[in-house]
Amino acid sequence: MADAQTLKRTPLYDCHLEAGAKMVDFAGWEMPVQYQGVIDEHRAVRTGAGLFDVSHMGEVRVRGEGAEAFLQRLTPNDVSKLVPGRAHYSGLLTEQGTYVDDILIYRLAADDFLVVVNASNADRDFQWIADRANGADYPAPTIVTDESDHYALLALQGPKALEILTPLATPGIGEVKYYGFRQGEVAGVPALISRTGYTGEDGFELYVAPEHAAAVWRRLVAAGAVPAGLGARDTLRLEAAMALYGHELDESTTPFEAGLAWVVKLDKGGDFQGRGALLAQKAQGLPRKLVGFEVEGRGIARQGHEVVSEGAAVGKVTSGTWSPTFEKALGMAYVPPALASLGTRLAIDVRGKTLPAVVVELPFYRRPRQS
């Protein structure tokens, strides 16, 4: 835990205090964990629209004639398929095919990309990317810069997000597809408006200059968005089975084990970091798989609790919570493939007490299709 005097603050700190937020240390940042309550904020996102401050995330700019080739070699997804105005989910992998971090890559122009990284890994990720750009022999130059201080990031999420954003944003924002983005304005200030999110709902992530963040936040709240904190963000992403670095993903985990094989394009042409190890794992078979489970009866499984089968420990819970949407305890865990089938019965050891659980389909939650 960082000393209170050393915690960093986002440009929205005063807005959080005005809204009555309970502030906590998160990855060295003083962040709102909740305002009126996690359950109310969670349900506001599922039924209306919630507003999150995610300005603690890191942004790395990768530019130059060699930028595409560099990112193609560095990451497992196919960067060449991105056109300007599109983004995709990917990862930074070790040579062992395991996660340094999971990331988003935005293609701003032919030779200009924005890589968004997790707050807890921001400094390390920037150095990881920069070191490999400087050490690689590419036919054209690649410039890597840390631009995290250039952006504040607001996430407007929920079925009413578009309704709230439309009167405040550049005309035609509803035409932006999922994982698409456009440069425009929100509340009269320049913004990169991205149709992405981390809640399982439709929504937008808004990149604005730090000095404009508070004004945009207040306009969105006045239009009906409910401030939501880290607590609701975690319960929402877990219901949607979205992986979190330090929980489902780390340097011992491959995309195949985490159920993220779709981000790995083994046949995209040329080598990329971790490809050899991933090819080997695909040929040999997985040692473990990420599964979802429901706890039967009372009790909540949390990260680190052991998963037990026939009296033996077989894995560990990566995330667990009480679900406000389903009103039951849910979680995710890594288990041997033989125990990953739907309906498999497991037990969770919670401080010596055994909770019965059953493997269920992921994601737990899928947003209703709009008519």
For the structure shown, list the relevant keywords:
alpha+beta, six-stranded antiparallel β-barrel, six-stranded mixed sheet, globular, 19 strands, single chain, 371 residues
Please provide a written account of the structure:
The chain is of the alpha+beta class and 371 residues long. The protein has eight helices and 19 strands. The strands form four sheets. It has a six-stranded mixed β-sheet with strand order 10-11-12-9-3-13. It has a six-stranded antiparallel barrel with strand order 14-17-16-15-18-19. Strands 5-6-7-4-8 form a five-stranded antiparallel β-sheet, with helices on one face. A hairpin with a 5-residue loop joins strand 5 and strand 6 (99-109). The longest helix has 14 residues, at 122-135. The protein is globular and about 60 Å long. The chain starts with 12 loop residues before the first helix and ends in an 11-residue tail after the last strand.
Give the topology.
Blueprint: H1 13-18, E1 22-26, E2 29-34, H2 38-47, E3 50-53, E4 58-63, H3 67-74, E5 87-93, E6 99-109, E7 112-117, H4 122-135, E8 143-146, E9 152-157, H5 161-165, E10 181-186, E11 189-194, E12 203-208, H6 213-222, E13 226-227, H7 230-239, H8 275-284, E14 289-295, E15 306-309, E16 312-323, E17 328-335, E18 345-350, E19 353-360
Parallel strand pairs: 3-13
Antiparallel strand pairs: 1-2, 3-9, 4-7, 4-8, 5-6, 6-7, 9-12, 10-11, 11-12, 14-17, 14-19, 15-16, 15-18, 16-17, 18-19
